[in-house]
Every structure is written in C-alpha cells, then in structure tokens.
Specification:
This protein is an alpha+beta fold and 155 residues long. It has a domain of 85 residues: Nucleoside Triphosphate Pyrophosphohydrolase (Alpha-Beta Complex). It is built from 3 helices and 7 strands. Strands 1, 2, 3, 4, 5, 6 and 7 form a 7-stranded mixed beta sheet that branches. The N and C termini lie far apart (37 Å). The model has no long low-confidence stretch (mean pLDDT 93).
C-alpha cells in the first residue's frame, strides 16, 4: 500500500481582532477549527481555500498571504496531514446559504477565547496558525506555483 498524506487548506481570517472559526461535529464531539478542508482534484490551492471558506462559512474569501505549510499527525495509527494555511479577508456573506454538513455554527473569537477552548480545538494547528498570523508571519501568494493541464508535447 502506498502511503499518502492528506492535503488540506485552511484560512486564518481576522476582523476587529477576532478570528473566524467553525464549530463542527467530529468523532470527538463538537470542535473548533479554521475554515478548512481537503484539496480536491483539478483545483489549485487558492481555489481550494476559497471554496472551503465559502462552503463552511457562507463568506467569500480573498487570500492575501500564505502563512505556512504544516505537517501534523496525532499518532502513528492516524492519517498524516499536510495543511497549507492562508490569511486574507472575507466579503459578501450569504446568511441564507446552507453550510457544509457537520458545520454547526461560525464564530468570531479573540485569540484568548480560542486559547481558552484548547480542549475543543480540532488540532493544535488552529491556535498555532493564529499565533503565526499574529506574529506577522506572512508570505506572498506568488510563492505558490500551479501547473495544471499543461500540454508538454510542444507540437
């Protein structure tokens, strides 16, 4: 069997010193996470994070920076995740839009409110990503290169 990590995207979205989190049903009960999800076939990373934010929060997201690539595994018997984390701004909220299955609510929380919920964070990457953002860790989106469906025959 070939080992493959799960590739996911996540968004750190800050407004008025509060961060947009989703509260979602998980095998461990209700937990908090950044809007995040799996990278899908035939999309680039920026399209993936825009889609995931919209599906989970009903906000349209514009990535402005790349924060980090995070490698995480809870323990050797569980999947390994490579998480590509972005920051940016939201606009155009649609309160009538149904959210992804499993998403119970969205919340705008301060860093301290997030830290107070550590026992309910989906992974340690949630608070780590907020702290990376708050420390000013941001890189240009131009670091991410996508080469999809290239015709390499050069006819």
């Amino acid at each position: 069997m070939v080992w493959k990590p799960h590739v996911t995207v996540a968004a750190v979205i800050e407004r008025d010193n509060r961060f947009l989190l989703v509260e979602e049903e998980t095998p461990h009960g209700l937990q908090f996470n950044q809007p995040a999800g799996h990278f899908e076939e035939n999309e680039d990373l920026i399209a993936a994070v825009k889609r995931e934010v919209n599906e989970e929060t009903a906000w349209h997201f514009e990535p402005e920076h790349f924060i980090s690539i995070q490698l995480w595994r809870r323990n050797p018997t569980l999947p390994t995740f490579i998480r590509v984390c972005f920051s940016g701004r939201c606009h155009s909220h649609n309160p009538e839009q149904l959210l992804d299955e499993g998403i119970v609510a969205t919340h705008w929380l301060t860093r301290d409110e997030i830290a107070a919920q550590q026992h309910r964070l989906r992974s340690p990457l949630v608070l780590c990503s907020v702290d990376e953002y708050l420390s000013g860790q941001r890189y240009p989106l131009s670091l991410i290169k996508s080469f999809l469906d290239l015709d390499l025959d050069h006819e």
